[in-house]
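Thread: "does anyone have the structure for this chain?"

Original post by V.I.:
We have the sequence but no experimental structure in hand. Need at least a predicted one for the grant figures.
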Amino acid sequence: MNEESQKYIAVIFKEWLPLYDSLTPDVRALLKKMADERSSMLATRFYDFIFQDPDIARHLSYELVEERLSRSLAGWVQQILTCEKEDLQALAERQYQIGSIHSRIGIPAEAVLRGARQIKSGLVEAIRDSQVARDTGIAAIHYAIMAMNMAVEMMCHAYTLSHYRATKNEEAFRLYSLMGNVPMEYGKQQASLSGWENSAIFNIVSENRTDLNATLLSESEFGLWFRHKCVRYFNHNPQMGEITELIGQVDALITEWRTAEQDAGYKNTQSLLQRSISIASTSAASWECYSVVCRRCKTAKTH
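Reply from O.Q.:
Generated one for you, tokens below.
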């Protein structure tokens, strides 16, 4: 097990070990009786409840539950209620194995918590209905619920660690795949942006207002690439927001030109060229932001 898991187990044991040491022989006997007589019933109750949720049930089948999972869960209940002190470390490590398995196969942590609540409820009812002294029953309920809570807590911690590692691995692979194609992608998008710039300037100078979408940066090859591919690569990187804003500014300039009346101000070639230069410089800034992101990601990968 990794160091982080062992540290968490040590924290849990600060509660569990004193709780175990407080058990009297009568309480231990009652817990063993409940484990022997009720563990199968509690496992059945768990899965009957779980199958009521279709989002959770789709991960399971009745055959799998009948052949393996129900017996495994009954064994888990027995271990939690009757585990000896010297075996608690192995029991704790087992919870981490279970939590990691849940993460890999996609069993939600909330499903485990929901089912465990049913087990605890059934156990409380069974102890309440048994013919034992009140203090013994209360002590048994307290230990059983606390022990199950701590076991499930370790499962959830393992689930979180496993999910985090999987997410980091996926992110690393995604960036590795992207960085392998940066030179080619850079050249391709630079050419795309340059082509849009030439087309936009030509349309403005020639007063070609008929096809606005062909002139908008957001609808250009570069704009579509940025919206559908680049943003997916870099998620919500701050530079992505800056590029989005710059593209919006360019489109606003073009839309303003498209809807303006054809007066002397917009017929004047010098004014048109000045506006074209403004659009070109804005789009160039957009590309520079993208280049910075690429360089930073490539540098991070090499380190």
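V.I.: this helps a lot. Confidence is low (pLDDT under 50) at residues 264-273.
O.Q.: and Residues 3-168 form a domain with the Globin-like fold (CATH 1.10.490.10).
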